[in-house]
Here is the input.
Amino acid sequence: MSRPDIKVEKSQTKEIAGKQNGDTVIGIDIGSLGAKAVLIANHSVYTALGRTGLYMQETANDLIGSLTDAAGIKRSDVEYIVGTGYGRVALEFPDTPSRIITEISCHARGAHYLLPNTRTIVDMGGQDCKAIRVEDDGSVGDFAMNDKCAAGTGRFLEVMANVFKVKLEDLGALALSATELVPVSSTCTVFAESETISLLARGESPANILKGINYAIAHRIGGMFARVGLQTDIYFSGGVAKNSGMRAALEERLDARINSSDFDPQLVGALGAAVYATDYAN
Amino acid sequence: MSLSTLPKFKAAVAARPAELEQARKNGRKVVGWLNYNTPEEIIHALGLIPVQLGIGGDDKLVDLGGSFISTKNCVYVRETVGLFAENKNPLVALSDIIAVDATCLQIYRVAELIEYYFKRDVVILDVPKNPTTSEGRTYFQKEVAAFARVLGEKTGTKLGTAALQKSIDLYREIRATVQEIYRYQAVATPVITWREVRDVIHARYSLDPVLYLQLVKELRDELHVLAGATPYLEDSPEVRIMISGSILPPGDNKLIQLIESNGGRIVVDDTWSGLVPFLYVDVKAPTPEAVAEAYLERVPHGALPHLDLKSDRRLKLQHELVKEYHVDGVIYHTLRYCDPYTFKANETKELLKQIKIPLLEIHTEYAGSDIEAIRTRAEAFIELLRNRRKKFGQQKPKAAAVA
Here is the structure.
């Protein structure tokens, strides 16, 4: 059964066209904020995106229902499911062969599937950031995660959007409209919020402050690449990857171009899970 | 397969508080000791009862300890202070004297606090920060001699040569037997797990050393019967993990559970709450000076500076253990604000990079708030190691500069 808040699409992305065999598999990425799923069926790729909500298994089942409806298949046609993401530990699919894999492996596999030359991934999700080094076969070479901090995460940006009274999806354009950068010293969500309010009270423009926030976060994330090493090509995945302001700040901090694809970067973990599911189905 | 000796350790540990109470009624003194370089041989040879103090994993005790010591000290240190503040742990409550060696300066600070706030009778054994120099060695020899003298004065006892030799022999046999047992958990098809061996090691905290030796010998003999007299270390189907870094005291099981629940198999550790205190202790004469010399010859604690990495015995041991135990990857665990091991993580990382062994750094504390984040890291690391096995087979370490 479809849920109204779940957005379902048939992907037309050129990078994945023609890569599917005849298997019918699903990858599900239950993140802390967003729930994502990818169905590979009929040599096509279908995607579903919604909010995770409180009940992760229920959300996963709703995502599967939305996808199978869109593809015109029955759930029993699904040969294999791979679950991933923060909510992966809660997932069970008793009627379908399944496996749980971390989002780190799935993002690597998904980005490699889209753009095979990808060697480094910045993944900025709802509650954490990761730097992932990808091997030439799409497996993980090394990785680093931010440590107990919401800086640079979707949750952080939600708080900032609320402070600026703009929609989350408009933050990127707002930052890109900045005429200068207002330095922001804190990347802690709580302190950054109060610092931002102080800066607004001082008369600084939201765009300039936001640019400062993005650069502060990019600087912090840059440290993770010192641990895993930065190799091109670079891919930016996760919900925050849709934020063009953050992308620009990261490119400047890393002094490297970040590759992009038409495929929704928030869905890359689910795509990787579906690719793994194809492996296991065979 | 269940080993019949293991429940005996558990029963002996459970019975120990009552034994200690009785011993104190009979006039014996209990010396609770903290840190890494306190020579148990000396305490035992004085006729005193040594017990090792310190547990981990209890955030309530950390909070309690945090009322007396800065929250910028590591959680183990804060929990240790909390143990004294609460005074319910039987080993803490029943210790007449608290002996603290100043290897880790945060624990040295604990000594000051428990004397000041909780009026405990504390004896400090200073540890030189230049242990490889002749000046440092001479200093520690004098410190150990003074430690024996002060303990003797406080308890009305005197260190005798024959008693010390007996204690040296006792502890030598304990260490050798535990080393032997430790290898059994790491064979391809073990009859004892690493976690069970860890429990055996931690039983030593409270047990009378004579009984402890009897039990470890019994366990060793049982293992001989079940698994042969020579445990052969080789590769096994599960990914084989070494744990390194900060202390993992009794009660701190968070990381271990996360590794094991994700299919990782811990086969070796080089922590000072695990295998390391049992290695490379060779007391050559029944004197405090010889005991001091032997303790400085052990694998050093991370808090002791050693700037020449090529001769660092800690790194050399890591290299040896990775090879000997067929390790696929190392999880380097550090407690927040445990500066010695946090700062030294990079040395281990560089060593492992040279021998192409992956390393995962986990920086944590006892609160449960980071469990899911650590689970993801540990799980992803195990996936990474499994993929490497599929692609390359088990990576055989190459020679590194420290070897």
